[in-house]
Structure formats: structure tokens, C-alpha cells
Amino acid sequence: MHRPIDDPAPARGDDPVTAPAARGLRGVRPHPVEAPGTWSEPPDPGRVDPAVLIALLHRHGWQRRGGAAGRYSRWTPPGPAARGTSLLVPENRAFPDSDDLIDEALTALTRSPAPSARDVLVSLTVPSDEIRWWRDVPGGPAGTASWTVEEQLRAAARQMLLAGALAARERAGYYGARHRRPATASLENVLVGTAPGGRRLTAFVPVSAARPLAVRLHQALYAAREAVDYRRATGGMDAFDGAVAAGVSHELVEAVVALVRGTEGARVHVEWSPAAGVPEGCAAATEPVEFSPGDLAVLREASARYLRDEPSVPVRITGAVVRMRRSGPRGAGTVRVRVLAGAEVPHVRMSLDEEAYRIAGHAHLVGLPIRVHGRLESRGGFRRLTGATQVVPVQVDDAERDRLLKSLQENLDFFEEACSTD
């Protein structure tokens, strides 16, 4: 079964968004492969390149069983599904019966019980780079896996895809809350297909929407492997500093740790879409990147290093005040702001002196956002702004101001302090 990868649960300790409208679940766009009726018929034979179909069959373990040289080849699926199933695939479209042969091959794929047949059809329908994960874990009866093993594999794979999406937007040793919203959105079109036994997982990353994710993840995994080898050979962590430019980060290293933990080893393999070709700067033939339990100590050391050393970021944020709090009717207080511009994070907290706190409260009461200068601190995931200065209201159009005022009316209990004696 193929479906969009699950959305993550909200991070623990993060305050709920106070505006009910912000709490509402956002609709997820259906992937083209999941659109109603898409699988009622095979892909249009006229749009299928025979060379791409042959490359996908070979990739997914189908066996070539002869055929007429230079005209067509016969293919059977791997495993028990090979019985009673075979495809005749033309070498090219130079012969009159090519379209008929492709049509028959696609129809046979839709009816084949082989799991790989569905994978081939997915890649034909939406050209996709394929990312595969393997975990060497003990199996259960008849090749089954425990629920926990299956969930661990899916969670680690999703962490890794998110780390790749973050790196495709910006290079950093630690992202925290930065870029998380757009990076998560970029995974909406990624499909995932499981294999029996809970040991393998495949993600189909559409070339048109998310190829930079696949490229960056491919490069980052190789850089992480080289950095681990360098650390184990020399004792130095310098290679991890340089690996940031290739997309290695705290988030990626933690994903590798989650993939390897509890196994005898794990592998990740990125393969390029035959229809789209090889990305610029990448090798046509790639090998799986392997990690073992012996790498975990180095990976955890690198993860902590990235978390500790990522510097704070100077920003100028424009945002709507959503929560205010202070211990008394006067003095400094804490403000939570929903970020509208200036930083790739959804919310930040900041401590303001009495005058700035008063300005923030009044701006909210009249339906205006504020602009503030400061530094996003890496501690806490870039959710806190320190050294906040130059707090001023910002003029917005009438529609935005009405929306902010409505938010205030719906959440007035959070602003008792702002409506006090100040």
C-alpha cells in the first residue's frame, strides 16, 4: 500500500496555538497517484517509454527470460509471484505492435500479485526518485515483524526525509523549529510503500516536486558516512564540521541513530528516476550507504556537537502577539508572537521590558502586528528571541487587521495583563 508519509505529532512542550483557526487541520493535497480513479486503468501506454519500463523492471528485481533480440524482451517477477506472470516489453517504438505490447504489459502489472509491480506502476505514473531503507533485525514467525519494529522503521525514515527537506532549503548544523513548516509541507507528495517483515521501506519522491530533497539526502548520507569513518580513524570531529555543507545536521544524524538503534546494521539507498535521468553532479550508479551499531557512539557525539555549536541568528521579526504574561500589573513580561515574516519559525517567545511590553499589548488590542529586532537562540530549538529591541507596531491592510482583532476577541483571556492598568 502506498500513501503519503504520516505527519509528525506536535513537539512536546510547545504551547498550543491560541487562535482556533490556527488549530484547524489543514487539508492535504492528494498525490496524483492517489487521486480517485487513477488505478482503475494502467498508465497511458502512449506516454510510457519502453527503456524506462525496462529499467524499472530491472531495478525491482524482475528477471529477463529471453525474447526476440532487438525487438522485445520477456520479464518475470521475483519470488513466488513469477508463476503465471510474464511481460513482453518492446525494446523501442520502432515496430507496429509496440503500443499493444506496452498496453498488455501495463495491464499485466496492474493484475500482478507481486508487490514490485505496484512499485513499477507508481514510478511510471509519477517519475520519482526512490529512497530505500533496510534494517537488519530479527524476524518473527513466517517473516513477520512486531508492531514496534515496523513503527521504528517508518519513524526513522520520516525523520531522514525531513532532514533532507530541511537541508534542501538551507545548510545548518541544527535547525530546531526553523524551516520545519515548509519542509514538512514538501513531504506531502512523497509516497511510501512497505515490504513484508518490517525490514524494508521505500519512498517515492516525485522529481517535479521534491528532487532537491533526494539529491541533498543522497549527498548528506555519504558525507555522514565519511565523517564517521574519519572520526573512528583519526579521533577528530573536523569532518562533521565540513559535512554541514553537504547537508549533514543534528536532525540527519538523529535520524540515522533512530534507523540503526536496535539493529545489527542499516542501509539507505537513493536511486534516480530513469525517466528524469541523473541529477547534475551526481553519479548514475549509486551504492547503499551502510551504518552499524559500532557507529552509534560517534553519531551521538556529532549530534550533541551540532546541537551545542549552532550559533544564534540575528533577525528582524514581524509577528502577531498571541500570548502575554507577567507577574504583576507593571514591569517586564513575556510575549509569544506568531511569526508573519523575518524568520522561518512558526512562533517565538521573548522577554520585553515594561515599555516594550506595553507597546506589544496596545498593538494587539488595536489589531496590529509588531516588528522587533533580536537574536534567535539555538537553545530550545530557535523558539526564543533574546535581546529584543525596537518594538514597534506595523501597519497592515484592513482585512489582516480585522482578522487579528477577531483572534483577540476569541482569545481575550490571554490578554488580561495587557488590559490592566497600563
Verbal overview:
Helix content is 36%, strand content 21%. The chain has 3 domains: 89 residues; 184 residues, no CATH class; 103 residues, Beta Barrel (OB fold (Dihydrolipoamide Acetyltransferase, E2P)). The longest helix has 28 residues. It is α+β, with helices and mostly antiparallel strands.
Keywords:
disordered N terminus, disordered C terminus, six-stranded antiparallel beta sheet, OB fold (Dihydrolipoamide Acetyltransferase, E2P), alpha+beta, 422 residues
The N- to C-terminal Cα distance equals: 59 Å
Gyration radius, rounded:
26 Å
The major beta sheet can be summarized as: 6 strands, antiparallel
How many domains, in number, for the residues? 3
Poorly predicted residue ranges: 1-40, 411-422
Helix share, percent: 25-40%
What's the β-strand tally? 14
Structural class label: alpha+beta
Approximate shape: elongated
Helix and strand run = EHHEEEHHEHHEEHHHEEHEEEHEEH
Strand order, biggest sheet?
A: 1-6-7-5-8-9
Q: How much strand content do the residues show? A: 15-25%
- Give the number of helices: 12
Mean pLDDT rating: 81
Give the structure's gist in a few sentences.
It is built from twelve helices and 14 strands. It has 422 residues and is an alpha+beta fold.
In terms of topology, how is this protein built?
Blueprint: E1 2-4, H1 20-23, H2 50-59, E2 63-64, E3 72-76, E4 87-90, H3 98-111, H4 115-125, E5 128-135, H5 147-169, H6 180-185, E6 191-194, E7 200-206, H7 207-234, H8 238-243, H9 250-260, E8 266-271, E9 289-291, H10 296-309, E10 313-325, E11 333-341, E12 347-352, H11 354-365, E13 370-377, E14 384-393, H12 398-410
Parallel strand pairs: 12-14
Antiparallel strand pairs: 1-6, 2-3, 3-4, 5-7, 5-8, 6-7, 8-9, 10-11, 10-13, 11-12, 13-14
